[in-house]
Design brief:
Distance between the termini: 12 Å
Number of strands: 9
Number of helices: 8
Largest sheet: 3 strands, antiparallel
Radius of gyration: 18 Å
Oligomer: single chain
Strand order of the largest sheet: 2-1-9
């Protein structure tokens, strides 16, 4: 029998239900998304310009939202970093969290309380953090991600046109997370991942035995801590 697992994140202490199974399902989800990306790249009419060593997005948009499942996997990856580098990462993440607390508090909208964040007001706050701070991700090691294998879904999607992170209307679809390298390039297709986004939310609900906690910021996820009884 697996020992009970807990996560401390954004001031919440959360008991995780069947964490090994949930993380295995998350790994399968990531693998499915990677397979869809490879299929997209295999068609030469689809431009794929994002390459290792290009860290433009990581240096300009360190704040984004993640589900609880992603935060659990990410916290595990951060915990495995070399001690000295990990200490530097946590110091940088705490600085980002201090800025987040200040900017989130300077807002007329309802409070962005962890575990009870409103779906409508949370993304604009995230955008404001990036716009005003323009922060680099604490997990960058030079121009490479130090936790590449454990990175969240949005990091995997960045650099591709993906419907799960697009603005949609009846007439058009705008890929807001598409890498700046694609500016001026015509797109003939995009990656379907709306179903994977739904599965992400489902895995998070299973982790809490049905309790809905909403999403967390990347700074909160980096600073999260996993414990086992």
């Amino acid at each position: 029998m697996h020992a009970p697992v807990h996560i401390d994140i954004a001031g919440l202490h959360v008991d995780l239900h069947d964490a090994p199974r949930a993380l295995a399902d998350l790994s399968d989800l990531y693998a499915e998304f990677d397979a869809r990306c490879e299929e997209y790249k295999s068609d030469r009419v689809n431009p794929h310009l994002c390459k290792a060593g290009c860290s433009h997005c990581c240096k300009r948009g360190a704040f984004f939202a993640v589900t609880l499942a992603e935060a659990v996997a990410w916290a595990s990856a951060v915990d495995a970093l070399a001690p000295d580098f990990k200490s530097a990462v946590l110091r940088a993440a705490r600085s980002l969290l201090d800025a987040q607390t200040r900017i989130f508090g300077d807002n007329d909208a309802p409070p962005a309380l962890p575990g009870r964040r409103e779906a409508a007001s949370f993304p604009p706050r995230i955008s404001r953090l990036n716009r005003e701070l323009g922060p680099a991700c604490p997990l960058l090691d030079g121009d490479l991600c130090s936790v590449y294998g454990g990175r969240p879904m949005l990091c995997r999607a960045y650099g591709f046109p993906v419907d799960a992170y697009a603005v949609k209307s009846d007439a058009a679809i705008a890929f807001r997370s598409l890498c700046h390298l694609y500016e001026g390039h015509a797109l003939s297709d995009y990656i379907r991942a709306d179903d994977l986004k739904v599965r992400l939310a489902d895995i998070s609900r299973r982790l809490t035995a049905g309790r809905h906690l909403g999403r967390f910021t990347s700074a909160e996820a980096i600073l999260a801590r996993l414990t086992r009884a």
